Amino acid sequence: MWRIEPEEPFTIIYIHSVQLSPVTETYHFNPSGDLILDETLFSSYGAGLPATTPYDFEITEDSFRIYNIQLKMEHLVYRTGAVRANHRLLIGDQDIPFTTFSEPRQAVELTYARKPLLYYVIKEVIK
Q1: How far apart are CA 80 and CA 103, in angstroms?
Q2: CA distance 127 to 124
Q3: Of 61, 62, 70, 73, which has the fewest Cβ atoms less than 10 A away?
Q4: Average pLDDT for consecutive 10-residue bins of the chain (127 residues)?
């Protein structure tokens, strides 16, 4: 569990299993608790990566960026990498490897829950 405010962006970074290149996906939760995909960044085209998009798109020296997506995600599930994916969650200045809260190959679903601050402090800070 991590404390995150509505509209605060967070990012998932991992190494793509086929292209073996980094993928960055940025999300936020809106005030209603819906999970929204904001943008994705990848360094090469290939299997499992978009070749076309209806969203804003730019090519930089190092990457392909799709942005202004604003797509509501019903479910967001990652499977913690066992070999090279090295999934990481970035919230503000925190860089959290998935392996610190899940086992390799374990499915991890990201959800939003409103909890009193005291609940968070007792559950995550005091441990």
Answers
A1: 7
A2: 6
A3: 61
A4: 90 82 93 94 65 78 89 92 88 94 92 77 68
Between the CA of residue 33 and those of 36, 68, 71, 115, 117, what are the distances in Å? 9, 19, 13, 12, 16
The rounded Cα 15 to chain-centroid distance in angstroms is 12
Position 49: which residue type? Answer: L
Taking a C-beta distance cutoff of 8 angstroms, is the pair 72, 40 a contact? no
pTM, two decimal places: 0.83
Strand 56-59 and strand 64-67: the pairing is antiparallel
63-to-42, 44, 57, 114 alpha-carbon distances in Å: 5, 7, 11, 35
Question: Nearest 5 degrees, angle CA 86-CA 8-CA 65?
Answer: 55
Q: Locate 54 and state its tokens.
A: 């209806």
